[in-house]
Design a protein that fits this description.
Keywords: Lyase, Metal-binding. The protein is of the alpha/beta class. The protein has a single domain, classed as Rossmann fold, CATH 3.40.50. Helices cover 44% and strands 20% of the residues. Strands 2-1-3-4 form a four-stranded parallel beta sheet, with helices on both faces. The protein is globular.
């Protein structure tokens, strides 16, 4: 009897904004990642002002067979939304979906490689101007 491999999801978690154009880079980032991870479901979720919120997205992911979700906060720092709000949301999701495994990464801006890429972009802007 073959065992079913877990269906993984990578959720890019962003703040959200009133202006829908604000989300454009996040959609591009999602597409770049999806292209590189064709066997993983890659989605966006927002804390506020935009949809889907993480709880409604989790329900959709569960319905399509995902049982492992990694949430990546696409924030520069580990501020209140990432250190307080997100853990509360994920704790509730773990209660609501006990068969699913949840993992939360550090805020993207906490990673040395991300900071180095941003630094190179900033340094490069001196040359471009």
């Amino acid at each position: 009897m073959a065992t079913r491999l877990p269906r993984r999801a990578l959720v890019l978690f962003a703040h959200g904004a009133r202006d829908p154009q604000w989300a454009t880079p996040f959609h591009r980032l999602r597409q770049i990642i999806q292209t590189q991870l064709p066997d993983t479901v890659v989605e966006l979720a927002f804390l506020e002002l935009m949809t889907p919120k993480l709880p409604e997205l989790t329900a959709q992911l569960q319905q399509c067979g995902c049982d492992e979700i990694t949430v990546v906060p696409v924030f520069l720092g580990q501020g209140g939304h990432v250190s307080r709000d997100l853990p509360l949301i994920v704790a509730q999701l773990q209660q609501d979906y006990p068969a699913m495994a949840f993992r939360v990464a550090a805020a993207a801006g906490e990673d040395a490689d991300v900071l180095a890429a941003i630094a190179q972009y900033c340094i490069g802007s001196l040359v471009k101007n």
